[in-house]
Design brief:
The chain has four helices and no strands.
Length: 101
């Protein structure tokens, strides 16, 4: 690991990743708004919330702050985002009554 990599604490790296996730979301939302193409907004937000919740939980753990309400809250946020993302992606079973596969 180089001098620059060792200069940042693990929580600072997580902060940089979170900023990257936020920028990614903003760019994808702006692209969707300007062109009408791209990732569906609800799915994008759900996916980013799930990822951000996990990153925040990791940041909390790396800081040694395992107790308290924040770690479970961040994990719950990730779970809600994940379940929402799954619900948006879930496809119904084929309808055999109408001969569809």
């Amino acid at each position: 690991m180089g001098a620059a990599a060792g200069a940042l604490a693990p929580q600072a790296w997580i902060d940089l990743i979170l900023v990257g996730v936020l920028l990614e979301g903003c760019v994808l939302l702006a692209l969707r708004r300007s062109t009408g193409r791209g990732v569906p907004i609800a799915g994008l937000i759900a996916n980013l919330v799930a990822g951000a919740g996990l990153l925040l939980a990791l940041r909390q753990t790396l800081g040694g702050e395992i107790g308290g309400i924040w770690l479970p809250a961040f994990l719950l946020l990730a779970l809600v985002g994940h379940i929402t993302d799954l619900a948006l992606r879930w496809q119904r079973a084929p309808d055999a009554r109408h001969g569809r596969l």
